[in-house]
Design brief:
Layout lengths: L4 H12 L27 E6 L3 H15 L2 E6 L2 H10 L8 E6 H6 L4 E2 L21 E5 L2 E6 L24 E2 L7 H14 L5 H13 L7 H7 L7 E5 H9 L4 E4 L9 E7 L5 H11 L2 H11 L2 E2 L23 H6 L1 H12 L4
Parallel strand pairs: 1-2, 1-3, 7-8
Antiparallel strand pairs: 3-10, 4-10, 5-10, 5-11, 6-8, 6-9
Helix pairs in contact: 1-2, 1-10, 5-6
């Protein structure tokens, strides 16, 4: 297999949108493997994913080409799709939940079937679920992003604390953590940075919400676009999303907050009682295979979760980024309570 498959597929996917949120299918009889040989149909698979289309489309197409498995893709926000998995318990319509913060997947683990990927021993121990309810896909540092045309170097924020400056009132893009898994991780990251046990973290969040001036966006993709589009001067987002906009020519920059950030992985999980279990296992194995991880990292600037994949060039190493002591189990166990409290704050009840 040639190393350039993903780059070509990215361009192809963006031009043709071969896979859509409504679940358009590729004819398995016409599927061609990555080495040019034809494949017969290998079954089917339904994937629920909050990933952006530019990531989903080429990866799923390559999986189809290699395996002959026809994939239906259902897109939506992390919270929305997890609620769908919950509602379908006992008779699932999906087979794999792919992406969304692993802490969000952990909080719904009763709806997933444990599966230890055949690549497990090649994965970095810091990112795996020892119970194998989910498999990590990429490590995702959370960052502050800014528009260079709206924010001067002199006023550049350097920390979470700096977001409380009145000059940024109503000019900070942040997604609703009840709908966005990455936003939930960001919320817990900030709570941890300022004190999640003594109430100081929530004191900070209350001040931040006030400085957002009621402008909470409905999804993480809106945050990613809002800063490059000059709708907001600042945003709280994923590192890889910001990097893709920078590579596309957007005049934005990235800040790793001085108090520390997090690099929680997103993940993939097989839905309990999946009707296409063997195909689901193949998909999970494919996501963490070495060549897929290398090329996703190269093309999308997403940090690999494998031991044997070289770091992303041009980025600070994960070990050089100040990280908070992110308590994964606490984030998963307290998700409902944290989101309810955040909602009370945003609606003026606290």
């Amino acid at each position: 297999m040639k190393k350039g498959w993903l780059k070509g597929l990215v361009a192809m996917a963006l031009m043709t949108l071969t896979i859509t949120a409504c679940g358009a299918k590729e004819d398995p009889a016409a599927t061609t493997s990555s080495d040019g040989g034809s494949k017969s149909g290998g079954g089917k698979l339904t994937v629920y994913s909050p990933n952006a289309a530019e990531i989903n489309n080429p990866i799923i197409k390559e999986f189809q080409d290699r395996t002959g498995i026809t994939v239906d893709l259902i897109s939506g926000g992390t919270g929305e799709l997890l609620k769908r998995v919950q509602a379908e318990a006992g008779n699932p319509l999906g087979d794999v939940f792919w992406a969304g913060g692993a802490d969000s997947l952990e909080s719904y683990k009763e709806y997933f079937q444990p599966y230890k990927t055949k690549e497990f021993d090649n994965l970095l121990p810091a990112y795996v679920d020892t119970n194998s309810y989910w498999t990590p896909f990429n490590a995702l540092p959370m960052v502050i992003t800014y528009n260079k045309e709206l924010v001067s170097e002199a006023e550049l924020p350097k920390s979470w604390e700096d977001l409380l400056d009145p000059k940024w009132k109503g000019n900070i893009a942040f997604a609703d953590p009840s709908k966005s898994g990455s936003s939930y991780t960001q919320l817990v990251t900030m709570l941890t940075a300022f004190g999640k046990e003594d109430g100081k973290g929530w004191d900070y969040v209350k001040k931040l919400v006030a400085n957002m001036d009621g402008k909470i966006l409905s999804g993480s993709s809106l945050v990613q676009r809002a800063v490059p589009d000059k709708e907001f001067a600042l945003g709280i987002t994923l590192e890889d999303a910001a990097l893709r906009y920078i590579e596309g020519g957007s005049q934005i920059g990235i800040i790793y907050p001085a108090e520390g950030t997090s690099a929680v992985p997103d993940g993939a999980a097989i839905i309990k009682d999946s009707k296409n279990l063997e195909q689901a296992k193949q998909f999970v194995d494919f996501l963490v295979s070495k060549d897929a991880q290398e090329l996703v990292q190269k093309e999308f600037k997403r940090r690999s979760v494998r031991k044997d994949v070289a770091p992303v060039e041009g980025l600070p190493q994960t070990g050089d980024i100040k990280l908070v002591d992110y308590n994964f189990d606490w984030a998963a166990a307290n998700k409902d309570e944290i989101i309810k409290k955040f909602t009370r704050i945003t609606t003026g009840q606290e």
